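Extended Data, panel c. Modelled sequence:
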Amino acid sequence: MRRITRIATVGLASAALALSATACGGKKSSDTSASSSESSSGQKSAAIAYDIGGRGDQSFNDAAFAGLEKAEKDLKIKGAEAEPTEGESEADKVQRLTELARKGNNPVIGVGFAYAPAIKKVAAKFPNTTFGLIDDTSVTDKNIANLVFNEEQGSYLAGVAAAKASKTGKVGFIGGVEVPLIKKFEAGFAQGVKDTNPNAEVLSTYLTQPPDFSGFAKPDLGKAAAQGQLAKGADVIYSAAGLAGSGAIEATSAAGKWAIGVDSDQYNQAGLAKYKDHILTSVTKDVPDAVFNLIKSVEDGKPQNGEIRYGLDKGGVGLADSNPEYKKMTDVTAAVEKAKADIIAKKINVKTAP
């Protein structure tokens, strides 16, 4: 797999633009015509451009990487990866996607809603290249596939589990950045808690406000937020904060309380192994399958486009049960299964905003 490594931002924003060509590992070309799915080596190739935090976040980005890795193995394609830079501009994202498309990667997938404006610009220049955009439907075109999830549904199940597992009646939610997508996680979680225990208290904390998106990338912020909620009596904390969530998991584990992970099954993430005994469960998003399915559709000559939604009914979101201690909590698992059935049967309508 070809990986385009992360470069630390140096100097001012103008310098960041100059560095972006180096970050994407290629020189400029005047060719912005239609692209095939073959790299310069002649082997079919696909690429993903990571969100804030990059690969190794044990969460969202790593889930996307798992889909690319599966495509390499099962479809015999070559994978390329591109990392974000700290404090990067919109122009950096445009340059990154342009270079990936120009090199012949097809599809080119932007991991996260932050890529929406850049994909809108670049997709128009490469009409025969399919662009995947995860977690956003605001940008559409015939060669754009919007890979989206019902995060609120999985988060509702987490709320049920948290309310049942809590002994103090206080649980916490930590969001990386206060944007509509993360508010969906909060809304579902809070609703699940309250529907299960109307007397429970949900403590909510956001690490940063836009345009500061570092709340997805700084574990120390997640750790401090979790410590604050623990001090107020929370004994189950759910984080939707990317790499920063690992800090919250660390703090919760140190206190001997329960953490709930997000996006990937964080109980099984190697980087979090020392805390796994305190990861009760995780809200999973089937980002790996979404990435793999898009790549396969291009390889099959029938590229996906438009909104591709993954909900609870098709296993697109869910609640992991990898922790043996979670499985032993039969009252918790029974309540979760009932809530899951009721959501699928549309007996429960989960909110998408608090």
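Confidence is low (pLDDT under 50) at residues 5-36. This feature is highlighted in the accompanying rendering.
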